[in-house]
Amino acid sequence: MWQRVFRDKRIIGILAILVVLAAVPLTLDLAKQQQDNRQRAAETGQVCTSDQATDTMMIFDQSGSMAKATSDTDSTPRIDSAKKAATAFLDILAKRTAQPLHAVSLTTISTDIYSIVEVSLTRDLTKTKDAINALVPKGGTCIECGIRNAMADFGPNERNGVKNVAVMLTDGGATQYVGGVASTTKENETEAEKRALAAAVEANTKYHMSFYTIGFGDSVNDQLLVDIANQTGGKYYFAPNAATLTTIYQQIAQDIGKGGISGDVFNDTNNNQIQDATETGVADWKVSLINQSTHAVLATTTTDATGHYTFTGVCDGAYEVKLTLQVGWTQTTPSNDASQTVLISQANNVTDKDFGVNLAPKSTSLVCSPTGLENIVKDFAITLYLKDGSGVAVSGIPVTFTVPSDQSLISVKTVSGTTNTTGQAAFTIGLSQTPTAEFHGQVTFNSEATNNYAAASCSVDVNYIPNRTSFNFTAFLHGIGKSGDNANPSAFSLSNQQPQSTIRNLNFEIFDEDGNKKFSNTVGITYASSTGNYAGGNSFGPQENFNLTAGAYTMRLITSEHLAKRIPIIQIIPGNTITVPAVSFVAGDADNNNALNVLDYDLIIGCYSDFEAPVSCTTDSKTRTDLNDDGSVNQTDYNLFLRELSVQNGD
Amino acid sequence: MSRKTFALILTLLVLTIILVVVAITNKPSPMQTTRQSQQRIATPTPTPPVPGHTTLSLSPSPVTPLIGAPTIVNVIIDTGGDEVRSVQLEIAYDPKVLTGMTIRPGTFFTNPTVLPVGGVNQSTGRITYAIVPGSFKELQKGIGQVAQLSFYPRQASTSSTAITVLDKSLVTGNTRGQNVLVKSTGTNVVLAPTR
Questions:
Q1: Which residues of chain A carry a pLDDT beneath 70?
Q2: In chain B, positions 11-70, which contact chain A (CB-CB < 8 Å)?
Q3: How many other CB atoms are found less than 10 A from the CB of residue A535?
Q4: What is the residue-wise DSSP string for A7-37?
Q5: Please, which residues 555-614 of chain A have a Cβ atom closer than 8 Å to chain B?
Q6: Partners of A119 in the beta sheet?
């Protein structure tokens, strides 16, 4: 069969078309995957899409010390090891695809008269290699000479649109400066270092020149090379041996066609977001380089001893540089713990992306003692206690106070406005005059925030409450405690001595002689088994709109599921304590309409449970028909209701 | 390649494209989604109001007192379909005109019990009278005599006087604690003129 199939050209044709149709989406899918991979590679910054051309000043130490052995275990003269690494560097640049091609000049570091431009800036890297290989150690170490001579050649020859870098190698410290003499005195070396740094900064200012500095061997002046690199947006490398030196040159060859980001992390002790002269950098702080689009972390580094950090080999693109805050510190700049945003374009080196940090102030607590002054009629002493989060007294902190503008009656005098060695500050509070009405105010005290301590506050309530009138109530509820029932109020043996609701609300209304309601409120009354009744009270004043004048009044008392009671005459003298005559309430008003009738009877019968479980009794109805409050609606409640119904002596 | 083969390939190609387009553009119908959402929406059921249809009236109306015998007036209940549990009558009359007023249970409830509330106040002319069935569970409906009034006219000074069933009267229905009384009607007592 298969032979026939393969012989039939039509079937083969159809199969071919189907294969093609299947191949089309497969091909499209593969193409998409490849595109994704290219995009991902570009986004990570691992491989730059273009190689920025550079004009490079190679500054090469050929001082006499370069004749010394490379290291204790390597007798090769330093200059030979350096030549090998430097020429390898040029070989890498020669193979790079940057357009226009990389150009390199070669200037030597030696004594003033020997420090010369060996090769002017040229794209002929072979010529530069030859010149390097021909160098012979001689003279002293005038780093300033090397930089300035290189600059003198660079200025007329630099090209527009290319990146400017300097790669400077030395095996020692600066011992001479332009126009000076070779001397190993401390003063001379200090001056030589100062001038060398100034020359490098000048190159950076004039030509945006970033210095990649390499210290080679065991007698290098690290600090000078670090300063030159940090202040020009470059990077410092230390090479203790020939192998490391070669690796460093290779790394620089990879990086100089790319951008760089650098900055400092400093202790912003005064929180002014600027690194002042007295504020130093902080070491070992983690800094991350983040792709602004994908938020992927591309690299992390830590600050050096001076607080400086550098990212090199950064491709063109938009980035964020984020500082990882250490415990107990806050970031002062950029504010709100923000990142630094950086745009690398044409492989430029971006500097001064700084972060200010400060040790967060310690939390404090301020305690006012006392916290409230009731019925203030004279000056009161207020003592404030300021402590840190560990409970240790904080001294020397100024404390101020604020009084709301509408409370000018309050008078505050400062006795001691700064915390003493025990953390205490002292004030007095009084009223400038006796108030004519009830007065409620507040004074707030604030301890100032300092670099080391956070602010804290506390407040003191200031009150003047004239003539509050107190009412005390006593209520007997029929069927409960020692109230008995209406048929025989003194016989309470059948009353429930342990009611379930031991606290009830008692509403009271006060009427004048003309029957006008003058005041009403609610108090809680509590059952006491010792007295067999409910009792409670409260005081009232202008704050509760209690403005009665002395005189005779009528009082009406109401509590739930009982008939209201009226007290015909009660003498009220404002400011005094009024003991309201005890009231005996009639129970049974299950529907709270202040009447006993068949509606209440119907509710009680509905919850009656002596013979069988009730079928039409809600939880609410049960509560309201359990007249003696013993938890069940039974014959006792029924009998009590009938007796209450027969008397009905409510209001 | 023959024309037939070419046509076959072309047909397959067109079919393939159509199938691919259909597969790519096939989305759930928005109409179906809407229908499903609408079905989930529940329509709230309105709660019917609780009916009350019961009336109380005095019979006969008017009534003419008999000479030498007590005059009887029945308190008639018509539940209008309601099931009722108890009745509380609030009746007012003029004690200056009528005297010897008494009230007793009627036949509407089985073994009725009179609750100890109020009673007849001969001086104020006010009757408060509560009647409940002997059984807590009993529910009654229909028309019947719920109570019976008995009185004598005093020496007539007026031609007539009213006995009123006050609106405060209560009839409890099937729902506990609920009054189902909607209307109450009194009667007029026609007295003989003074000789």
A1: 1-47, 49-50, 97-100, 375, 377, 485-492, 650
A2: 12-13, 16
A3: 16
A4: H-HHHHHHHHHHHHHHHHHHHHHHHHHHHHH
A5: 590-591, 596-603, 605-606, 608
A6: A106
